[in-house]
Structure formats: C-alpha cells, structure tokens
Amino acid sequence: MKEIVVISGKGGTGKTSLVASLAVLAGKVVLADCDVDAADLHLVLAPQVKSVSGFTGGKKANILADRCNGCGKCFEVCRFGAVVRQEGRRPVYLIDPIACEGCGVCSYFCPEKAVEFKPALNGQWYISDTRCGPMVHARLGVAEENSGKLVTLVRNQARMIAEEEGLPYIIVDGPPGIGCPVIATITGADAALVVTEPTVSGEHDLARVAELAGHFKVPVYLCINKYDINPAMAKKMEEDALSRGIRLAGKIRYDRSVTGAQLSGAAVVEFSGGPVAGDIRNMWKELVKYLNTSEER
Amino acid sequence: MASSLTVAVASGKGGTGKTTVSANLARAAAEAGHDVFYLDCDVEEPNGHLFLKPYLGRRYPVHIPVPFIDMEKCISCGACGEICQYSAIVCINKHVLTFEKMCHGCGGCALVCPTGAISEKGREIGVVEEGRAGRIAFLHGKLNVGEAMSPPLIKEVRSAGRHGTLNIIDAPPGTSCPVIAAVKGAGFVLLVTEPTPFGLNDLGLAVEMVRTLGIPHGVVVNRHDSENSLARDFCRAKGLKILAEIPDDRRVAEAYSRGDLAFSSVPGYRERFFALLDAVEKEA
Ligand code: SF4
Ligand code: SF4
Ligand code: SF4
Ligand code: SF4
User: Which residues of B touch A144 (CB under 8 A)?
Assistant: First the structure.
C-alpha cells in the first residue's frame, strides 16, 4: 500500500481538484481529506457518510463562578492571555475559550479548585463511501486548535481501512502551508506530490515545501499547474526542482473546464475528455511508475 | 491621515488572492496619503514581500520559552511531567527528558517544580524581518522549516501594529488557531473569496470564524466572472456585503505570476483599489 499526499505550500493551486481526478484514475482508493481547516474534497466526491465521531484534541479551562474567590492566581499564571479580568468593585475572572491553549496551569494553581479542566469537543470526523472508494474526512470546529492531532487521526483511520480492504493507494488531500497540520500530514508518507503554479509566490513556496518534505525524508514529486500562464517561470521551476532532486510528475495546462468540473461536482477527468484531462492522466501514469520503482519502505 | 485602523485580510481557503488584495490595498492607501504598515502574518508562506519589494533592514529571531533542567537540583518527583498537557517533559528513571518541539511554553513545569530545578531558555521558532517599501512600513514573520508552533510568531508580528497608522494584516489561510492569532483585535476583516463551490464553502467557514470573534467584515470576490452569480447569491443569503469584485482577468494573473502589483501595472486597477480602500474606510 502506498500513501500519496498532495500538498501545495500556498493554497488554492488546484490541489483538491487534482486529488479528485487522481482518485478516479486510480480506480478504488482510500481518500483522506487532511485539510481539516477548510475541507473541500466532499464537494466533488459527494460522500455518503457512514459514521460520525467526535474529536477531542485537548482540554479547556472554565471558571466556576460560585467557587471562585477572586484571588487572581489564574490570571497571573496564564501565559496565553486567556484569563480575562473584568474590573469592578471586585474583579471578576473569566476564561476566553478561543484564547485558551489548554495548558491546565490555571486549574492546577487555583486554590479553590474553581477551574474546571475538561476535554473539549474540537471537531468531528467521518467515514464515508464515495464513487472512488472509502473516504475519511473531518471538520475542525471554528476557532479550534489541535488540527495536527485531527490530521493524524484521519490518516490513521485511512490506513486501517486500506489495510482491511486491501486497497493499494491512499490519496491524501493535504492542508496548505508548512506548519503543524502539514507536518502531521506528510510524516511517514510514501510520496508527496507538490502542486504549484508558475508564479513568484509558487516558486518561493515550492522551495519551502520541498525543504520541509526533505526534512521529513519524504520523496517529492512536482506538479506544475497552469504552466502556460508563465511558461518561462514554469521552466525555471522545473529546473530548480530537478537540481533539488525533485522529479517532475507532470504539467497541467490552464483550462476553464477545471472550474466547470467544480461547478458540476465532478472531477476534471470525469467532466472533460480534453487536453487538460490528458495532462492529468499522463501525470498519474508517471507517478505510478515512480512509486512502483521506488524502494519498498 | 492620523486615525488608526487595523484591517486583516483573510480567507478560509488559500490561494484566493489574499496577498493580491492586501498588497494592492497597501499600495493604494500609501498613494492616497495614509501611513501604512503592512504586517505579513502568513508566516508559513510569507509572500507580501514579493509584491511590495521592501528593503529589509532589521532581522531578529523569535523564541518561545522551553524548560531547562538543572539535574543537580532535581529530586525526580515527576511533578513536571504530570502538569504538562503536551507530553513535552517526562521524568523517567531519575532523568528528566524534554521534547522541545512539543512544548507550548506554558511555564507550568517551572512553576510546579518543588526544588527550582527548572528554569527557562529560548527556542527559536522563526524570524521577523522589518523594512520599508516607499511609504509603506513592512514587517513579516518567517516560520522555520519543520516548525509546528506558528501562533507565537504570528502574535509577535501582529503586536507590531502601530497607532496612528493603517495596519494591513495578511492573515494565514484557514479558520483555526493561526488565523485567530492574526485577526484577533482587528477593526475590520476583509474576506477574500472566489466564485467557485470551494471558494464559497471556505468563505462560509471564515464567516463563522469572524462572527465568533465579533469583528465587522466585508467580502472581496476575486476572479469574478460576470456569467456566474454564485458569490452574489451566497453573500445575499448570508447577509454579507461585497465591497469589491475583481474580474477574472488574465492580465492580473500574469502580473501576479511576475510579482507585479495589478495596481501599478494593469490599466484600470488603480481606480478599483482606491474604490476598495474607500469602501473599507466607510465600513470600518
Ligand atoms: S485562581 Fe481560582 S479562585 Fe483565584 S481567581 Fe482564579 S478561579 Fe478564582
Ligand atoms: S488552561 Fe492554560 S491557557 Fe487555558 S486559561 Fe488556563 S492557563 Fe490559560
Ligand atoms: S513549559 Fe508547559 S508545555 Fe513546556 S514542557 Fe513545561 S509544562 Fe510542558
Ligand atoms: S518537577 Fe523538578 S524536581 Fe520534579 S522531576 Fe521535574 S525537574 Fe525534577
């Protein structure tokens, strides 16, 4: 079984559309949407949800007003500005749940045991069926933390399903950036497909993502999306990638049918038989070839 | 103009044109005579500098406090490992191990240690670079590669905002802790979206976030296509005000790919961004 994670540095480079097309081309796969902050894959793959579970990534503090003596110890020890002091004849202390990092220090030091410290429901995750196979996806609550833990949970579930059902590929739609959720997404994956565009930002981000993947020893393959927007830049990025030991998986042209596919809830390769679909097919072939020749890990 | 205003530019999804909007808006405001401070809080992929091309002067590292153990004083009581919620410190076999990358710097372990064996040292998570692009003061944070803790760096960049200035914040994408750190306390949030199912799904999440935080907000529709009314319908249904529609214009995409500002390089865009600036000032 091979786990391919699709990431992009900067978001909005066509990562999710591409994941949907790859899933269609691969036949039956397990899909994992690890962009838990702004999940979109469900919009193309229309999952039939089979199970819903709550996600608890950490704890949060809450002051029980009837036990609090107003000593202010919690305010003093909280380093995250999450204990709010309301001035008055007698100051009142409250916890801002959005700012609370769940470190528990206030609760530990409260002399009156007035700070409850309980697991917080940070989101939900789902196992669903799609036309391309099972899909694990999630939704992090708005303004919640612990996206890295949720990503790890989604990946582990996807892996379990792939093993149980004997499916050869897991395709992971990764989050943007290079921070905590991305690290949780790529660690230990078989390949990272980096989707980028030929722009100065794309070039800049590619360098950072590639460095990150290198740091975690994940082989990197490059996809240049909309390469014809700036062919000179595309060429430059291709060469730059090669010099970093990154292989080009493919280049995809700019085509409005990509938006058309999204509007009709289809993957590009289902929606269009045109040249852009051909580009994606070629890329999948290359990728499979590379994956099957690379050493078993 | 001497009034203070902090405008954060955010979007649920990345790549909708957040940096395009923030950088062009900053240039428009500077040309309109404002003192502008551009704060790039997208510390995982800071790109504002590619468009504003500031001269970068001062550079300094940003640290978070992590525990430092004096084994001479440690009595192996295990209290530090018990208070830590992030498994960043444990006491096993008369040894205290720390996992600095997992430490949130809450300071709990140092506070509970009965013998004063724990002090704190700094661990670098990224750097801040400061500079200027003509009338625009500029500052961005760059997260070290392999680093998971972005919020403290974002807070550092964010806290540099000044009074008597128009502070423009380029926020990271998403709706969770990094974005919150960037937009909290802003006077106004511009939500940038695209008229596509993905764009609007993510706009919905971003709206939930700004409503949770209680910050006034408006929408910029990027890559607007006159044949499709998805964004307008969505905003009408959600009671959101559209402050600008930037057309799906190949010239804008090309300017972006080269690192140029549409404001200065594509005819007709000066007026568009001046109009957006006016709209923001009226709403905020
Ligand atoms: S430490 Fe406990 S008793 Fe003191 S103000 Fe905080 S909640 Fe109240
Ligand atoms: S749990 Fe930690 S972050 Fe939350 S309020 Fe208490 S001290 Fe502050
Ligand atoms: S400072 Fe807080 S997070 Fe870091 S090791 Fe100590 S208790 Fe754990
Ligand atoms: S709390 Fe202090 S004395 Fe106890 S194990 Fe930790 S470092 Fe050692």
Answer: 176-177
